[in-house]
Write a structure and sequence with these properties.
111 residues; mainly beta; two-stranded antiparallel sheet; 1 helix
């Protein structure tokens, strides 16, 4: 990002598979990614608390609930954030990931 958009505000998000390969407990807090990003000026405050996965119709590990989806920002401030359920109206899962979202503004500007 520093080469592509030096000094510009950045919002990065996605399924980062945090903790996915850290048995036995798959704890996302063991990932080095978070501290590395903080060291480059990113904040993880754009991601709402809570897990972001759920069993789907094809989930091979239905008891494993994890936090894999994140939003990180630099040069921005978080106005709001949340997690949208991936359950349909019939309560069946549409995905094994819930949707993470945030509303952001420039760090030095107004809303």
């Amino acid at each position: 990002m520093d080469d592509f958009a030096p000094g510009m505000p950045v919002l990065i998000g996605g399924d980062l598979n945090t903790g996915n390969h850290l048995p036995p407990d798959f704890d996302w807090r063991e990932e080095g990614l978070f501290d590395l990003a903080r060291g480059r000026g990113y904040s993880w405050d754009f991601t709402a608390p809570g897990t972001t996965t759920r069993p789907s119709l094809i989930t091979p590990h239905p008891d494993r609930v994890m936090k894999l989806d994140w939003l990180a920002g630099r040069g921005l401030r978080c106005l709001d954030r949340g997690i949208l359920s991936s359950l349909g109206a019939d309560k069946k899962p549409l995905s094994d990931h819930d949707c993470v979202w945030c509303a952001a503004a420039l760090a030095g500007g107004g809303v």
